[in-house]
Amino acid sequence: MPDARSPDTLQPVHPVTTSATHAEERVQRSLFGEILDWMLVPLLLLWPISIAITYVVAKMIANQPFDQALDDSVMVLSQQVIETNGKVATRLNGPARDFLRADDVDNVYYLITDTRGQIIEGDRDLVIPPENAQDDSTHPGTIQHRDAILHGTDVRVAYVYVDLRSVAEVNATGVEKIAPRTALVQVAETLEKRARLANAIIKGVILPQFLILPIVLALIWFALSRGLSPLSELQQRIRARRPDDLSPIEAGQVPEEISPLVRSLNDMLERLSLSMQTQKRFIADAAHQMKTPLAGMRMQSELALRQTRQEDIHRSLEQLAKSSESATRLVNQLLSLARAENQSQENTPFVQRDLSEFARSVVQDWVEASFSQRIDLGFEQADQRLPVLCNPLMLRELLGNLIDNALHYTPVEGSVTVRVRAEPQTGAAEFAVLEVEDNGPGIPPAERDHIFHRFYRILDNRSTGSGLGLAIVREIAQQHGAEVTISYNPRSSDPEMPGSLFRVSLHLLKTVEADFR
């Protein structure tokens, strides 16, 4: 029975796609679709609401003329109500009654009653008085309206209370006859004409919307396509670029809303261009500088192969080892310079450090090298804590290159001193100063503007450096906003060996974090 873990039982493993990846693909939407949704969804939600509002408004508009006609009928009918012998009566005749009910569409009803509710004339089904009739009777002559149901059909009722005291008579004895105070006149009609007019208004408003809506949607689609066309043009312009074209994108042809995006892209392209230039410069420098050491090492190895005497072979191998050490140092400095340039472009976060303790730890790393060269390496610490904001890796590289440079230019039995101190300046600002001094040959003032250039070396100098150490120092100092100055060593008393003093001034922090060290 084969082992479950044997190769015969292994099954091919298929790539596993996480649900998160699918989720990201699902939620990705086009800008065109997003804008279209935000425009169409409110439009489609508001459209039914507008139809409902249109229906209500149409009914109100349709009611106004028919209510006015109903009011006219009530007013004409109320003028036919009189008081005779203390009783309410009407002066309506047959043709007047027919004219009152004349309507080809709706049914018209009317009713006249006295104060006691006694029917004088009309349709008995309208006997039911309106609500608050007693209160309304105190305002005779005011036409009012109400909705009711008659014979199972909705009707609109207009009614008015008629003041009969204005038609009271006085008998021969001069005594006024007591007449009823008021009479109630009601006229009602069904709502067919109103419904027809309301439907006509609604159709006149809604039907054009059905025709206009597709046109509006087409215009929105066209407007969005035209409005977003600069994005498509920008995409095509970027796609048409060569892979090595890192020039800025022209922002004058894009809308104002896209300008921040274009500026961000240009900023990224600029940083990428600087990074590419740094890489190209590094490759060119490495190729140029490594050509001579490698050629020398090849010649020395070939010479060692041709030697027959043990002493000559040993001498050639020693020279080969020195060349190898020099090439290794050159490669390390090239890498340090490239790392320093990359750090300045990557915006690496800085941390707080005590410059005195930091410099002490760096100096300790160089004690063995100075001892092997028989050079006295000293350190003078500040009498106070000097907090600075720095990139510890890069600042260590800076101080290490200054110490290495001093050791290379200092003769045997010489001395190199690293010093940290606080230096008050004009105004409120103070600086933490890092100094490296030696008693070597010094740097003439005419050369001090050039020694920070990469691969620059002073002629007739006894040291064989690569010319990169001080270029690294300048790059890291600029990264920290620090200033590097050079002078002769003021403590040197030998005019032939005036020495050098390198001074790096860093901003001293006023506030210290809790985890400061």
UniProtKB/TrEMBL annotation:
Key words, A-Z: Kinase, Membrane, Phosphoprotein, Transferase, Transmembrane, Transmembrane helix, Two-component regulatory system
Pfam families the UniProt entry points to: 2CSK_N, HATPase_c, HisKA
Catalytic activity, reaction form: ATP + protein L-histidine = ADP + protein N-phospho-L-histidine
Subcellular compartments: Membrane
EC number in record: 2.7.13.3
A Gene Ontology cellular-component term: plasma membrane
TM stretches of this protein: 38-58, 200-224
Highest rank taxon of the organism: Bacteria
Region (Disordered): 1-21
Family annotation (InterPro entries): 2CSK_N, HAMP_dom, HATPase_C_sf, HATPase_dom, His_kinase_dom, HisK_dim/P_dom, HisK_dim/P_sf, Sig_transdc_His_kin-like_C
Chief site of localization: membrane
Domain HAMP, residue spans: 225-277
Residues annotated as domain Histidine kinase: 285-510
GO molecular function (one): phosphorelay sensor kinase activity
Protein name: histidine kinase
Organism for this UniProt entry: Collimonas arenae
